[in-house]
Amino acid sequence: MSVAEFSLPQSFKADRRSPVRWVISHGLQQWPVLIVALLGAFGNAALAAVSPILVGQAVNVVTAPDPDLARLTQLALTLGASQILRGIIQFGRNGGFEFMAQAVERSVREELYISLLGKSMTFHNLQPVGDTMARATNDVREVNYLFSPGVNMVVGSLNFLIMPLLLSAQYHPSLILTPVLFVIFYALSLWLYLRDLSPVTDLVRATFGRLNTRLAEALDGIETVKAASQEQGEVERFRRNVGGYRDATVRQGDIEARFLPMLVFSVALGVGLFHALMLFRQGILDVGQVVAYFGLLLMLDFPVFASLRAYSRIASGLAGARRILELMNRENDLDQNLEGRAVPMRGAIEFRQATFAYNGEPAVAGVSFRVEPGQTVAIVGQTGSGKTTLAKLVNRTYDTTGGQVLVDGVDVRDWQLAALRRQISIIEQDVFLFSQSIHENIAFGNQTASREEVIAAAKAAQADEFITTFSEGYDTVIGERGVTLSGGQRQRLALSRAFLTDPAILILDDSTSAIDSATEDKIQQAIFEAARGRTTLIITHRLSQIRWADLIVVMRQGRVAAVGTHDELMETSLAYRRIFSE
Hints:
The protein contains 21 helices and 10 strands. The chain is of the alpha/beta class.
């Protein structure tokens, strides 16, 4: 099982060794409701069996030479009362399983959400968002359906199988033969049915995941699709994915249509009735007993018709559970290290032969340099030289695959992860903003901040001047990913967010690239003020930012090509000079 970055509190620890164990462990958490539902299922079946027995007795009363009307009335009242009670008990069974299904869905969603929050960025970079959403929505819903109607109908139908076995012999010992043979052939045909159905339900869930993945990618990249005029191409891809999902669903329907227990039930009815009539001809059974026995055999129709739907739901639910578990159990190299170092940082950073390989390909290799507390360091290099990867090793977005990264002389893996990240703020070129108010976006890293503190941070980042132009000011709700804002506005909000958290280490990953020249001087001054008194790593191509750095690190093909000041590097480093000549 994977080790999550953050062990957030959960109501209980589920058994993740297999989909069946996992589903059962969630279901058993609702054991009081389960007991009520199981008792309701047994009571419902028992009272259902009372009906044909009482009807058989009534037939004997009616067909007698001198019918006993008082006895007939008593039987009718008893039958009516039993079925009213049965309805109440059946409500308990259905309500219990439905309550359990909803409670399990809630706990599964919580467990999956906590697991996803705890996964590393390596996991999230490799896992398609659309597939994750399919598992978090549709597959979780299938687990709900597994319990209701799935387990609900299965448990109810199994009790309907038991009653003919228990009650048939009271009329004649040989009459139990038909129910016994039915149960044997029913179980065998059901096993064959589920054997064929299980891989197809897995395929249905997988094709739905692929369909959802492509849909999410197309919508997320809608600007690119329209810019390249590829709407028709996306429609064709979507049709192919829909076709695959349709074909898998049709295969499932074909297997369900060839449901053998229906044939077994029909044969059992014919054989059982013939057997009872033979005993009637021999004078062993009376008419009422034949009617009662046939009524008991008719109870077998519920297991047959219920299983056609219920076991399909269970198979789909287990397929969904398998996909959810695969997601949660996927290995993850980062851990929270709850016992790790958790003290205020000074801000010293040291790379000692730091190496990181991404999918087997080294992104950085053998990087070594030291940053003193309070220094401003510019990391420069061509695209793909490993600058961003280097920065993400500091807060353990990625973990080194070789060498070490140290903060205040302590390996970052020996820091408590939450304490490490609280004191490091990264502002990336691709700024993510939530569909919330501007105030909530700025205060995301410090949600107890007052309005005054938020405004002060926005002013420091030169964001207040455009925020106040909105009609609702800091209460303005921005669109997903900040699409209603310009690139420069989004990055100034990200700067505001970083200023508010007051980090010991500030990392700016080309964060001013989208800022227009009119505000560049103000932003430069804001960054200069923000860098005062804290360690700052700036990944940039802007000469204006590089010049005032205390130290410049030149990256080339994942390695450190040169280290020094601007003047030193212009004289000694060909790689550095090339950056400004291109």
